[in-house]
């Protein structure tokens, strides 16, 4: 595996003090590579030394209209940190995550050997199974125990949209955002540049529906815009989780991304599928409206649809080659 970075090996009799093996580095790198990201831009680089792995927000093509402040890129990096920590735990290490938000990086350290549990191993396997399921879900409702487990796995505030009043409030805001994003020609040109055949970056066109809640949450030029009542009826058949933070700085956004990925992997472990919506939240009035209408007491960072899958093929987005992961 010639792409692996060179690791400084130090003589030690203690397994707790040795650096990562090349096999362990391969596992950690693949876990980062499989993380979800805004428009599948994979805006991170990885550096591994000793028993520390540093994930850094890398210079990448700017999403000047979708993500002018870098919030979605930081959410993406938070998700990659979650995968890194979960993979490390699945390898039998206790972990410590150190955030350096102002520098755009996080360090995950394997602090000591710790036996894995069955759930640790299941969560690690879920990294490779997780997929963005943007289609309609099976009508089977998500049980209360599963909803509780998914929300509990999150490490920031995660609130279920609950009841007709909240469903109609969310439907109104999603309909407004979809119309605004659909009509913004400059934004649509930028979005269109990231949609096409499966490649190392970007979104595969065949994975994007043209109707339903998920399509409303990522409105393209091809989206058929439903009315508010149609969206509300669809939301009544789905489980939607809103991730929010009290404040809205870079660290909050990284933590929200980590929390969402932990919840997503727990859902995957339980046989559920999910997709994330951040496009509506690029509009400040939608974020503010969600905070008020859902009584969040903070700023919403992303929305996650969760349900049981229909038996249909779901195209997977491509990923950059592993050597590129280590290029800053």
Unreliable runs: 1-13
Sheet of most strands: 4 strands, antiparallel
Distance between the termini: 20 Å
- The SSE order reads HEEHEEHHEHHEEHHEHEHEH
Query: How confident is the prediction overall: mean pLDDT?
Result: 92
Strand order of the largest sheet: 1-2-4-3
Using the alpha-carbon principal axes, give the shape.
Answer: globular
Total count of domains: 2
* The CATH homologous superfamily of the largest domain: NADH Oxidase
CATH topology (fold) name of the largest domain: NADH Oxidase
| Total helical elements | 11
| Fraction of residues in helix | 25-40%
CATH C-level name of the largest domain: Alpha Beta
Strand content: 15-25%
Structural class label? alpha+beta
- Rg (C-alpha, Å): 20 Å
| CATH architectural name of the largest domain | 3-Layer(aba) Sandwich
Number of strands: 10
Region (Disordered): 1-20
Protein name: Nitroreductase family protein
GO molecular function: oxidoreductase activity
What tags apply to this protein structure?
328 residues, Nitroreductase/BluB, single chain, oxidoreductase activity, globular, Nitroreductase family protein, NADH Oxidase, alpha+beta, Nitroreductase-like
Can you give a write-up of this model?
This is Nitroreductase family protein. It comes from Saccharopolyspora shandongensis. GO terms for molecular function: oxidoreductase activity. Residues 1-20 are annotated as: Disordered. With 328 residues, the chain is of the alpha+beta class. The strands form 3 sheets. A 4-stranded antiparallel β-sheet has the order 1-2-4-3, covered by helices on one side. Strand 3 and strand 4 (105-113) form a beta hairpin. It has 11 helices and 10 strands. It has helices at 22-33, 71-90, 118-129, 144-153, 163-183, 185-192, 213-217, 228-236, 250-269, 284-293, 322-325; strands spanning 44-49, 52-57, 93-100, 105-113, 157-160, 195-196, 203-204, 239-245, 273-277, 299-307. It has 2 domains: 22-129, NADH Oxidase; 144-307, 3-Layer(aba) Sandwich (NADH Oxidase).
């Amino acid at each position: 595996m010639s792409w692996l970075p060179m690791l400084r090996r130090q003589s030690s009799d203690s397994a707790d003090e040795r650096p990562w093996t090349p096999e362990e580095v391969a596992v950690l790198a693949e876990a980062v590579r499989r993380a979800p990201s805004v428009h599948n831009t994979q805006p991170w680089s990885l550096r591994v030394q000793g028993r520390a792995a540093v994930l850094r927000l890398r210079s990448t093509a700017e999403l000047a209209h979708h993500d002018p402040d870098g919030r979605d890129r930081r959410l993406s990096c938070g998700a990659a940190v979650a995968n890194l920590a979960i993979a490390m735990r699945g390898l039998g290490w206790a972990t410590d995550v150190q955030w350096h938000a102002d520098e755009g990086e996080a360090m995950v350290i394997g602090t000591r050997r710790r036996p894995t549990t069955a759930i640790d191993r299941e969560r690690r396997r879920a990294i490779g199974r997780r997929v963005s399921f943007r289609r309609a879900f099976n009508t089977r409702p998500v049980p209360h125990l599963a909803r509780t487990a998914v929300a509990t796995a999150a490490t920031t505030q995660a609130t279920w949209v609950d009841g007709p009043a909240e469903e109609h409030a969310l439907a109104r805001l999603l309909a407004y955002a979809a119309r605004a994003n659909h009509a913004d020609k400059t934004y649509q040109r930028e979005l269109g540049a990231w949609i096409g055949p499966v490649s190392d970056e970007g979104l595969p066109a065949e994975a994007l529906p043209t109707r339903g809640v998920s399509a409303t949450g990522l409105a393209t030029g091809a989206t058929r815009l439903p009315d508010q009542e149609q969206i509300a009826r669809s939301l009544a058949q789905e489980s939607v989780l809103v991730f929010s933070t009290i404040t809205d700085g870079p660290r909050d956004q990284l933590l929200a991304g980590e929390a969402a990925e932990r919840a997503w992997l727990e859902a995957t472990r339980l046989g559920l599928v999910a997709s994330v919506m951040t496009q509506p939240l690029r509009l400040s009035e939608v974020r503010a409206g969600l905070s008020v209408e859902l009584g969040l007491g903070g700023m919403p960072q992303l929305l996650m649809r969760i349900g049981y899958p229909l038996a249909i093929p779901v195209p997977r987005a491509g990923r950059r080659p592993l050597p590129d992961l280590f290029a800053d």
